[in-house]
Amino acid sequence: MKNKYALITGASSGIGLEIAKSLAKRNYNLVLTSRREPLLRKVADELISSFGIEVDYISCDLTDIKAPQLLYDFCKQNAYQIDLLVNNAGYAIPSPFDQTPMEEEEKFIRVLGISVIALCKLFVVEMLKNRQGRIMIISSVAAFAPPSSIQTLYGPIKTFMNRFSEGLNRNYNHKGITSTAVCPGYTITNFHTASGVQKEMDNVPKFMKKEAAQVAEEAVQATLKGKQVCVPTKTFKVIVFLLKIIPHSFFSLVSAVLAPGRFEKK
After folding, report:
1. Contacts (Cβ under 8 Å, ≥6 apart) of 243
2. Residues 80, 33: contact at Cβ < 8 Å?
3. Residue 207: predicted pLDDT
């Protein structure tokens, strides 16, 4: 696997970092990217020291329309054959939809949606040449849940990403390329603090809060097996099953307990 690499976006912390560790212990070489170069450098050094793999990194802001091409060119120039593309970068907007500038909404959609499509479009061409490749798209249980009273666009974008992943499988599965939509529930990372919704996370029952390492390990296992959808942990597998069969109107009766602050009417 000397020349084979996994590219991970949002790799400096949280689920992205744990995915990097999970792949590193499987002897994958890595290309890491996020906005925070000092942290990327630290993570890369630690992974090299701990696992003896090759790790490179590039600081990149996916709100920039040119970012996907920049990442692709970086890999091509360094002869990094990307056999596993991990689309993990993401965040949430805490302010109400009517109070959020359109420019911020567009940046949000670019990071969670358009950049994912752009990276897949660029790297799938190389995967087709090699007749093999794995794509991981970090989605969310929110893709299956009723609309939330906060983060108005988050759930819809994740639903779209699930359908996009299905489309990739329909078109390229028979050519050796698989896409896995990973749908975590509440995961203990800095995501909620950075997104301004830590209060809502604090109110979630303890049994629903999962460790990022567990989520990442299940995500990697599912992706390497070519599964189309992965809902990490038994807890959220059950919740997603229930969300598919019970009326959304009934969900409002239990939302104050299961997800306080997210589904109540304001």
Report:
1. 141, 144, 145, 251
2. no
3. 57
